[in-house]
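Handout, page 2. Input:
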Amino acid sequence: MKERERITFCKQLAQISRAGIGFEEGIGLVAEGKKEKYINRTRIVEQLAHGENLVDVLEQEGLFSPEVLEMIRVGMDTGNIEEVFNELAAYYERDLSIKDQIKTAFYYPLILGSMLLVVMSILIIKVLPIFKEVFEGMGIAATGFTKWLFDAGQFIGIGIIVIMVLGWFLVFAGNFCIRFSKTKKLWDKLTESNQLMEMIDLIRLTSMISLLLKNGQDLESALARGEDFVKQKRVKEKVNICRTEFIASVDLMESLNKSELFKPFIRKSLVLSMKSGSLDGSFKEAADYYEETLEKVLVKKLLIIEPLSVGMISLIIGSVLLAVMFPLMNLMNTLS
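Output:
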């Protein structure tokens, strides 16, 4: 299911709950005249009409993970379901925002690289033959790098186009294959030591723990369920150490220090907020901090890539033009 569709669905369920009408009636109103693509609201309404529980129906439809379903169940039992769905929508929006930032950081250099290759191809395939004809018409003998460019230009241009097409094919093929479980596991294994991916996991972890604590879960349960949203092996190990130590000692600072799960200043903030009874808010602030840090890292990478790409384009175009212009300048000097 598309993330945007899941976010919309959570917001709709929160609105239905706020309106004080039954989920069967509310979802039926939303589904009326709507083309169903990712979420079959009509089927959900039919199952609810047969007396099935909302959580069981959502589980059958495979719309949420078991951890989220349990959270929804607790929300329904405590009468806090509207806030649960609003918090879930906020969690998925944060997750989607992170994915969009990663995509931008990934595709931007690819697009710049493609532009570089296109410019090179046009220059070599279209422009160089014109200069070659000029040289031949004026009786100028090309030597060195200029001669090599004239002789191999056509092959170089075609090779560049092939490389560009192959590169984009691999990107789209990889993006398609990663949707399947086996290739997704391979991708997770390849990126398990990536600091950027670990930061994304920390955002997901702190966001989910905040959400769980806000909805009545204790810290031990929140850590256990939050671990299920973590993908990186090293982060999982740290969460497990933190939870184990917390069960053994009930000392949050000690367990955080031994696991080294978060930065020191975040650990101190969490301990203070636990004493003041605002632990969920402190975890949310930690999520905000990691999200801001991730954004800064990605922006920094993009700021490095852009001037490098422009510099490479300028260098290559300049080299080709100089290779062509020097023989002409020599001829002009000879004639004068």
